[in-house]
Amino acid sequence: MSHRRSWNDTRALVTGASSGLGRAIAEHLVHLGATVVLTGRSAAKLDAVAHELLQSGASPERIITVAADLTVDKDRQRLFDEIANRLGALDLVVNNAGVGATGQFDTHDPWVLRRVFEINFFAMAEVCRAAQPLLSEGTAPVMVVMGSVNARRGLPGRAEYSASKFAVSGFVESIRIEWRRFGIHVLQVNPGFSDTPFDDNAVAKTARVSVSEWRTMPADAVARATLRAVARRKREITLTTRGRLLVFMNRLAPRFVDWGLSRWLLRHFPDAPSLHRKKPASQAS
């Protein structure tokens, strides 16, 4: 797992650490010898993760839990004040917290779009802003931002989520260059179709069949792949064969991908009655 990087005594922050990919990454880091700050909105869920880590033999001083809503300014400030006081600096940040939404864009209330962007983009960017001074003082510092296959190919029925991840990707490409002067490496991880409870936390859900049916990569495998990419100083990785195939085919034959996704849309979303323009009444037979 090391791949030219020692994780022992690494000072790390993992957001969205109470479940899914964030939890899996935090668990790996703790067992590899890192000191990890786990944050999420639910104190009870974070305590449960910490308890399981302790039961598995993890050292208590390696685990710090801070419940925080990263969309709230005072919560973010409290989180980073705690990190500065207890760790002094950061070597790794896994900016993972996010939320999904499924359904036809025109059927959703405007708050759905705003909420998805508030969590997936604005909170992510503000975590980057707050973490940068601490990473600048760290050893071989890395900022990991969780993107998505949807950052490279928008999916029907996931317009808000896709748009937020396209924004994330553009942001990451910009700060990757800007942060060279601080010595901070920036990695974007596109998990593709992975096995996590992501859909359970969606702010809107109208899919007939959960996107989870596509998922092929366990959270544990995503965590290991992410840490390998950190150690190898990769710029961007896209995970799962289906995820990489979707991105590749979209570059090669985007109209074919449009056609295939339009058929998928009809099967999985009950609020998509037709993909074809209705004929004017004068032309109807």
TrEMBL record:
PROSITE patterns reported in the protein's UniProt record: ADH_SHORT (PS00061)
EC number in record: 1.-.-.-
Transmembrane annotation, as ranges: none
Domain of life: Bacteria
GO MF annotations, alphabetized: oxidoreductase activity
Keywords: Oxidoreductase
Keyword Ribonucleoprotein carried by entry: no
Domain Ketoreductase as annotated: residue spans: 10-196
Family recorded in the similarity comment: Belongs to the short-chain dehydrogenases/reductases (SDR) family.
Record-given protein name: Putative oxidoreductase
The organism of origin for this protein: Paludisphaera borealis
